[in-house]
Write a structure and sequence with these properties.
By secondary structure, the chain is α/β, with parallel strands linked by helices. Helix 5 crosses helix 6 (201-232). 33% of the residues lie in helices and 18% in strands. The strands form 3 sheets. It has an 8-stranded mixed beta sheet with strand order 1-2-4-3-5-6-11-12, sandwiched between helices. Strand 3 (43-48), helix 2 and strand 4 (69-73) form a beta-alpha-beta unit. Residues 304-354 form the Serine aminopeptidase S33 domain.
């Protein structure tokens, strides 16, 4: 491998303060780590996620070793999604792809890993035929006027279709009081004493309906509160809030639902603990951010809807032992792609980040490179 290069990528800043660091805001840059192959490559793969730091992504070195330059990319929201808007993430990805094309790359492959799957789908949809003129809260950016260069291919790797869908699938419906995670409805409590496995299908159906109802209640409260702030006429235009119980998908405890090779539990540990621990999914929000990334009804980040609008080749890979992104997520994304130039590939025994699974990392890298070669996109 020829080496690693830090990329300072100029990006369009927002008038709204949505990241805490003043240095980061004033710098007007997002960052990427470019791993170069030993020989010049005309193709580059860019790994994306709304918040994760992919500059150390496990696939960067393997792709470079196989002749494909690779970039681990970060958005402006690296490590903090509390005030994230998906539409700004699209601008950041656009800045990254534009930067890479200006470096001389002829082909750019967009790799959405984990939560990057929904972002990759949203980006490509809006780059090919933009429709989004504002966030769900009515704010900029207008993606129909943005400079978004379409990727030449999409890879979805251990990915899900979007943050709002995941929030809808994982939200704990037993919580009755948004300020008290221990005020619980025993009829909807996944962790209630005596709850047996496999879960009763009737319970699961009620549970799913209650999850959507809770997501909708939070959405309506966020919209009402924003309206109250606007009516007050002051400068305050957003508020933070806390969401308890964000990791309670029944599939975490019952592996017969959406069956796969996974073990029960989550990548953060036991489900009941992960459900409330601060470091798991989406506990810290703002009103505007909730509508953009977590609201099932309002978010623009519906990966299935956006994948249905893309024209480029799509490779979708999923781990059969993944505790985060289940086989049905991969199937949903595959089915959504409207053309036949798509491929669905299981990684047998693969976990979410292929930790301590070097043979699976090699399989993924080999599959990506051979697929690109078949499409004339290889270096």
């Amino acid at each position: 491998m020829a080496g690693i290069e830090l990329l300072p990528i100029p990006m369009a800043t927002s008038d709204r303060i949505d990241i805490y660091s003043g240095v980061a805001r004033m710098a007007g840059k997002v960052w990427g780590a470019l791993h170069r192959a030993d020989r010049p490559s005309r193709t580059v793969a860019m790994m994306v996620h709304p918040t994760s730091n992919f500059m150390g992504h496990y696939l960067l070195e393997p792709l470079a070793a196989r002749g494909i330059d690779a970039v681990g990319f970060t958005t402006r929201y690296i490590g903090n999604d509390s005030a994230l808007t998906m539409e700004n993430c699209v601008l950041d990805v656009g800045a990254g792809i534009r930067y890479l094309r200006n470096l001389g790359y002829e082909k750019v492959v967009l790799v959405g890993n984990s939560g990057g799957g929904g972002l990759a789908a949203l980006y490509q949809s809006q780059a090919e035929s933009p429709t989004i003129t504002h966030t769900p809260a009515g704010d900029p950016p207008d993606l129909t006027t943005a400079d978004l260069s379409p990727a030449d291919a999409i890879v979805q790797l251990m990915a899900h279709p979007g943050r709002a869908q995941v929030c809808g699938d994982w939200l704990d419906p037993a919580i009755r009081n948004e300020y008290d995670p221990f005020d619980r409805d025993p009829e909807l409590d996944l962790f209630a004493p005596g709850r047996t496995l496999p879960l009763d299908p009737e319970f699961v159906a009620r549970y799913r309906a209650a999850q959507l109802a809770r997501n909708d209640r939070i959405t309506q409260w966020a919209k009402d509160t924003l309206a109250e702030l606007a009516a007050a006429g002051g400068e305050l235009a957003d508020l933070p809030f806390l969401v308890h119980g964000t990791t309670a998908d029944p599939r975490f405890v019952d592996v017969t639902i959406d069956p796969s090779d996974r073990t029960p539990g989550t990548m953060w540990g036991p489900t009941e603990v992960a459900n409330l621990m601060p470091a798991s999914l989406g506990h810290n929000c703002s009103l505007r951010s909730w509508l953009s990334q977590w609201s099932v009804r309002e978010s623009n980040g519906d990966g299935q809807r956006h994948l249905a609008r893309i024209s480029v080749p799509a490779l979708i890979m999923y781990g059969t032992a993944d505790q985060v992104c289940f086989p049905s997520y991969a199937q949903q994304m595959y089915d959504a792609v409207p053309h036949d130039d798509k491929l669905l590939v299981p990684v047998q025994g693969g976990t979410h980040y292929l930790k301590d699974q070097p043979e699976h990392v090699d399989f993924v890298a080999d599959t990506v490179v051979s697929w690109l070669d078949e499409h004339g996109i290889k270096a």
